[in-house]
């Protein structure tokens, strides 16, 4: 694979994975607090007794690395429609895999509901793209 294509796929994967985290940061429009004593900060949520943060981190990283590799492995054809479908299938599968990690280890009800929706929606979209591929390029 051409080095530029590999870097582009990796950069895309990093952007896609970082965008949700960046979007969750509130922009209050205020400046940071002045140095000195501040109110006690709430500690980050801890995993429940059956949840292992190390395993969650490992599983999340594995799903992201697999998605990046699978996207990098897709051969480009020069046909934007065909390439879009071929690249989006592993991208969506990566989102499904990440959502399943959240379902396994997460505990926030909002994110758990969102993860269920992601699995359902992205599974449907993968099926749609696979059907498109079969209709337009049945030899693949």
Topology (elements, then pairings):
Layout: H1 3-23, H2 53-72, H3 80-105, H4 109-136
Helix pairs in contact: 1-2, 2-3, 3-4
Distance between the termini: 20 Å
Approximately how much beta-strand content do the residues carry? Answer: under 5%
Q: Tell me the major beta sheet.
A: none
Computed CA radius of gyration, to the nearest angstrom: 19 Å
> What's the number of helices?
4
| Chain oligomer state | single chain
Percent of residues in helical segments?
Answer: 55-70%
Shape: elongated
Structural class: mainly alpha
Q: Detail the poorly predicted runs.
A: 18-49
What's the SSE pattern? Answer: HHHH
Characterise the protein shown here:
The chain has helices at 3-23, 53-72, 80-105, 109-136. The longest helix has 28 residues, at 109-136. With 140 residues, it is mostly helical. Mean pLDDT is 77; it is low at 18-49. The chain has 4 helices and no strands. The protein has a domain at 51-140. The radius of gyration is 19 Å and the shape is elongated.
List keywords for this structure.
single chain, 140 residues, mainly alpha, elongated
Kindly summarize this structure in a few lines.
This protein is mostly helical and 140 residues long. Helices cover 68% and strands 0% of the residues. The model is unreliable at 18-49 (pLDDT under 50).
């Amino acid at each position: 694979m051409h080095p530029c294509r590999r870097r582009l796929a990796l950069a895309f994967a990093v952007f896609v994975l970082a965008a949700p985290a960046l979007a969750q940061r509130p922009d209050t429009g205020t400046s940071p607090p002045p140095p000195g004593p501040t109110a006690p900060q709430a500690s980050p949520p801890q995993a429940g007794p059956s949840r292992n943060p190390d395993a969650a981190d490992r599983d999340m990283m594995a799903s992201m690395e697999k998605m990046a590799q699978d996207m990098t492995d897709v051969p480009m054809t020069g046909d934007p429609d065909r390439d879009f479908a071929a690249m989006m299938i592993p991208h969506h599968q990566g989102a499904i895999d990440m959502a399943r990690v959240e379902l396994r280890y997460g505990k926030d009800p909002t994110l758990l509901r969102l993860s269920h929706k992601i699995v359902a929606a992205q599974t449907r979209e993968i099926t749609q793209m696979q059907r498109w591929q079969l209709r337009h390029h049945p030899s693949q």
